[in-house]
Amino acid sequence: MYAASHDYPDCVVVMDHPLIQHKLTILRDKGTGAKEFRELVKELAMLMAYEATRDFQLAETRVSTPVTDTNSYVLAGKKVAIVPILRAGLGMVDGILELLPAARVGHVGLYRDPETLQPVEYYCKLPEDIGERDILIVDPMLATGGSASAAIEFLRQKGAKGINLLVIIAAPEGIAEVVKSCDGVTIYTCAVDSHLNDHGYIVPGLGDAGDRLFGTR
C-alpha cells in the first residue's frame, strides 16, 4: 500500500504500509544500536524497492509446472542499476539486491560542505551501460536536496534516463529542491518530516544516518 502525498506533486510517493511505519519508528529511536539500525535500513530499502518497481514491464513466457504447461510472466524491459549516495546510501543496497540480485551497483560520493551546505563530489563509478538501465538512487535522508539533485544531474550527464530516488525520510525543503531541479524523477519516501533545523538536519528525523549505520561520530 502506498499513497501520493497531498502536499506535493504526483512524483512524490509516501509509503504508508504498516510494516514500514513500524520499522521507521524503531529506526528513529535514539536507543536503537548500530546493528539493529543497519538491519532496519536494509529491511526498509527492500520494502521500498518492492513498491518502486511496481511499474516494471513484464513479458509473457511459457513455463512447465509439475502438472502442465502454462503461460506466465517475467520481468522485461530495461536492466536495473542501484546507485547509493555515499556513504549512508550503502546501507540500502543489500536490501534492494535481495529483490533484484542481477542489478548492477554504481557509487556516487558526495559530501555536504558544513559552511555552505552545498554538495561536493569526490567519487563516481557507474556501470558502463548506465543509459540502458532503470536507475534507483538511494540515500536514507533527503534533507536540503542538494546532494540528491547533484547526483541526479551527474547521472544524467553520464546518459542515465529513467531515474527514481528512494529515501527513507524526506524534508519538505529537499523535496522542493529535487522537484524543482530534476524534472521526471519520482521520489519514494517513508515519511515527510516537519522541517530542517539551522544545521541542515531533518526534524524530527533520526540524526545522522551515516554515523548511526557505521557507529561513527
What's the structural blueprint in terms of helices and strands?
Blueprint: E1 3-4, E2 12-14, H1 18-28, H2 34-52, E3 58-64, E4 69-75, E5 79-86, H3 90-99, E6 104-105, E7 107-112, E8 119-125, E9 133-138, E10 141-142, H4 146-157, E11 163-170, H5 172-181, E12 186-192, E13 195-196, E14 202-203, H6 209-214
Parallel strand pairs: 2-12, 5-6, 5-7, 5-9, 9-11, 10-11, 11-12
Antiparallel strand pairs: 1-2, 3-4, 7-8, 13-14
In brief:
The chain is of the alpha/beta class. The protein is built from six helices and 14 strands. The longest helix is centred in the N-terminal third of the chain and has 19 residues, at 34-52.
Describe this structure in words.
By secondary structure, the protein is an alpha/beta fold. It contains six helices and 14 strands. The protein has helices at 18-28, 34-52, 90-99, 146-157, 172-181, 209-214, and strands spanning 3-4, 12-14, 58-64, 69-75, 79-86, 104-105, 107-112, 119-125, 133-138, 141-142, 163-170, 186-192, 195-196, 202-203. The strands form three sheets. Strands 1, 2, 5, 6, 7, 8, 9, 10, 11 and 12 form a ten-stranded mixed β-sheet that branches. Strand 11, helix 5 and strand 12 (186-192) form a beta-alpha-beta unit. Helix 1 runs antiparallel to helix 2 and helix 2 (34-52) packs across helix 3 (90-99). The radius of gyration is 18 Å and the shape is globular. It starts with a strand and ends with a helix.
